[in-house]
Amino acid sequence: MNYFSSGEVAKKLGVSLRTIRYYDDIGLVEPTSKDERGRRLYSADDILQLQKVMLLKETAMPLKDIQKVLNQITMERILLLHKEKLAGDLERLSLSLDHTHSLLNMLKLEKDIQWEHLIPLLGEDLEGKRQQRVEAMEGMFSEEEQAVLQRNLPKLEDNPVEVAKWINIIKRIELCIADGKKPESAEGQVIAEDVMILSEETFKGDAELAEKFWDARKSEEASNELGFYPVRQEVLEFLEAAMKEISLSS
Questions:
Q1: Residue 50 zone, left/alpha/beta (φ > 0; ψ -120 to 50; rest)
Q2: CA 27 to CA 218: how far, in whole Å?
Q3: Across residues 127-155, what is the average pLDDT?
Q4: Which residues pair with 34 in a beta bridge?
Q5: Three-state secondary structure along the chain?
Q6: Are 171 and 229 in contact (CB under 8 A)?
Q7: Does CATH number 1.10.1660.10 belong to domain 4-73?
């Protein structure tokens, strides 16, 4: 029978020598034999046991639970657990990738982003944030309205051109505010007209949905829950006043 040293096993399996020794120390996978100098010697069956441990560990199962089921669990069950773990990893990676795309597009548009926008990349619960947005959307809009918004609202992670139209409006309003121009000024009215055009494209003439959306947009709390691009309250107030001025003059 061929035997392998701890170092050979560690190299073969791509784990640390310390890990191999630790599994022996806690009785999880003990070597079949030891030589006259006390060195651990592992058989092919021992290595198979270590591989089973590694697969189960990949499923995030605690070592104490692995120890209980190692010799009873079937290969099918191991593979199903591993499949579930991989599916979860793919979901998290997809969310992280979308978030990274959003930040890259935001950086192109804004030329600067705040450090707190990067924090979710360190492992914050992106899935939890996504679920929060879903629940917030369900609480504010009907299923039909959600479908319209899902189809037509520009998404920062994959539609930077459409997002740029709205962000440029925000920048134009900020320039107006910085220059002391009022919502009823010529510049303010042109901005309001552009917003009405974009709103028509987004809400397809559904005035009730547009009103519900803007009510949510004006609420800082609702905007945060829905994951909307952050906009200063002063900008939203300018836009609301400009659009009200157009309504009064029409």
A1: alpha
A2: 61
A3: 78
A4: 40
A5: CCCEEHHHHHHHHCCCHHHHHHHHHCCCCCCCEECCCCCEEECHHHHHHHHHHHHHHHCCCCHHHHHHHCCCCCHHHHHHHHHHHHHHHHHHHHHHHHHHHHHHHHHHHHCCCCHHHCHHHHCCCHHHHHHHHHHHHHHHCCHHHHHHHHHHCCCCCCCHHHHHHHHHHHHHHHHHHHCCCCCCCHHHHHHHHHHHHHHHHHHCCCHHHHHHHHHHHHCHHHHHHHCCCCCCHHHHHHHHHHHHHHHHHC
A6: no
A7: yes
Q: Are 154 and 106 in contact (CB under 8 A)?
A: no
Distance, in Å, from the CA atom of 116 to the CA atom of 95, rounded to the nearest integer, reads 17
The residues spanned by each domain of the chain are 4-73, 125-249
Strands 4-5 and 33-34: unpaired
* Residue count of the chain: 250
pLDDT tens-place string over residues 42-73: 999 999 999 989 888 888 888 888 888 888 88
How far from 172 is each of 166, 167, 188, 242, CA to CA, in Å? 10, 9, 9, 13
pTM more than 0.85? no
Residue 121 reports pLDDT greater than 60 = no
